[in-house]
Amino acid sequence: MKNTLSDNDLQRQLRADDKKALESVYLSYKQAFLNYAKRYDIATSDVLDIYQDAIIAMHQNFVTSQLELQNSTIKTYLFGIGKNKIFKTLKAQQRVIRVDAENDNYTEIKIEEELPTANQHALAKRLSELSETCKTVLQLFYYRNLTIEEIVDATHYKDANTVRSHKSRCLKHLKTLFKVH
Amino acid sequence: MNNETLIQDYIANRLSTNQRAEVEHLLETDSEFKAEFESHKDMAVAFKIAEAKHLKSHFQQLENTLPKEKSNFKTVKYAALAIASVLVIGLSYNIFNTTSGNDLFEDHFEISPNTYQPVTRSNNSDKDNTAFIAYENGNYELAENEFETLLETNNNPNIRYYYAASLLNQSKYELALKQFQILNKIDFDYNDESIWYTALIYIRKEDYALAKTYLKKLGNKKSTFKVANRKELLEVITKKN
């Protein structure tokens, strides 16, 4: 990679939901992934789509589970997820996976992918109707899993109680929006 | 530790093995805790869905700003490729130069009929039906807007399909293609149609390699949709490619 950050530094930034770091990871490994995927004979536009989905799945795992890679690098982890997604695409197209293509440097990594329920999809849509401040506080709590104290540090709220009461009001508002639709 | 913090720490991997086991035990034995856990999880997943959608569109926009992919071929390979191209073009020129991608598209394109929600006397006043009425009347601009509005509250792939068709019928090829590409990733009622129109758009763009992939996809699925047209097109574009 061209930038001077170590893999560990980048991982730390990804855990903190740093979008600039994510974009830099995206650009750094894109061409390598497109080249890697050539052995599977999938249309470039589909590979790009798979790559984007793999990057997003990887990033969300860093953010929500506060992932720390012990014996692996971001690239190996990302390509492992991508490989799994390629195989899923090939299987969906009922195509045979060549054995020699299975044995390369990357181990398939399957990220927990329970399909979201209809309820969760509906809830996701309602999120866009929240005010920015509500969305932010709920996102910090439910998506980034920051503790109330960490939210105080990361925002302008004066103390933990203010965060708690604001969060609870926003949640109530979201539930009302959800019921209306 | 209150339940909420416990659940949050469980999801964020901040618990010891024993504490994790404790949460898992509670999930099995305490229905109130389980309900609280599920509702927390619903929120977490909802944010994941919304954020993934946002990131996806960010990457797609980023791709539009990037210069096109540069080839990794070395000069020698370029030369070989150039010679091969000249030979191929030379050999096929007389036979295939007459039909452009656009001609092929025009020859095979037919407006997708509304078979999802046919407009009848009993339902033509339904609010949700405005889009299909506009579609059936050939007012694709209005249909496009109406379908777009419907999609905001209902991510129904069949609605998206007719949204894509409305775009395509107005010659908004790139926008339609984007929608078909979203649809091609899922299994729904108009899968074959969506793949077919994707192939046709690529033919129009003269991206015959991709068009071929999509036509073959239909073959792999053993689809009977437009089977004669597909065979004919595959033969023509295989010679072009």
Radius of gyration of chain A, taken over Cα atoms and rounded to an integer in Å: 20 Å
Summed up, the domain count of chain B is 2
Order of helices and strands of chain B: HHHHHHHHHHHH
Main structural class of chain B? mainly alpha
* SSE run of chain A: HHHHHHHHH
Total beta strands of chain A: 0
Distance between the termini of chain B: 65 Å
Set down the secondary structure blueprint.
The complex is a heterodimer of chains A (181) and B (241).
Chain A lengths: L6 H9 L3 H19 L6 H22 L8 H19 L6 H4 L15 H10 L4 H12 L4 H7 L5 H21 L1
Chain B lengths: L2 H9 L5 H13 L1 H35 L9 H22 L4 H8 L21 H7 L3 H14 L3 H13 L3 H11 L7 H14 L3 H13 L6 H14 L1
Helix pairs in contact in B: 1-3, 2-3, 5-10, 6-7, 7-8, 8-9, 9-10, 10-11, 11-12
Describe the protein.
- The complex is a heterodimer of chains A (181) and B (241).
- Chain A is mainly α.
- Chain A has two domains: 7-102, Orthogonal Bundle (Rna Polymerase Sigma Factor, Chain: A); 118-180, Orthogonal Bundle (Arc Repressor Mutant, subunit A), CATH 1.10.10.
- Chain A contains nine helices and no strands.
- The longest helix of chain B is centred in the N-terminal third of the chain and has 35 residues, at 31-65.
- The N and C termini of chain B lie far apart (65 Å).
- Residues 92-97 of chain B have low confidence and may be disordered.
- Chain A binds chain B through residues 19, 22-23, 26, 31, 34-35, 43-45, 48-49, 52-53, 55-56, 59-60, 64-67, 93-95, 116-117, 119-121, 123-128, 138-139, 141-143, 145, 147, 171, 181, and chain B through 5, 8, 11-14, 40, 42-53, 55-56, 58-60, 62-63, 69, 72, 152-153, 155, 181, 185, 209-210, 213, 217, 220-221.
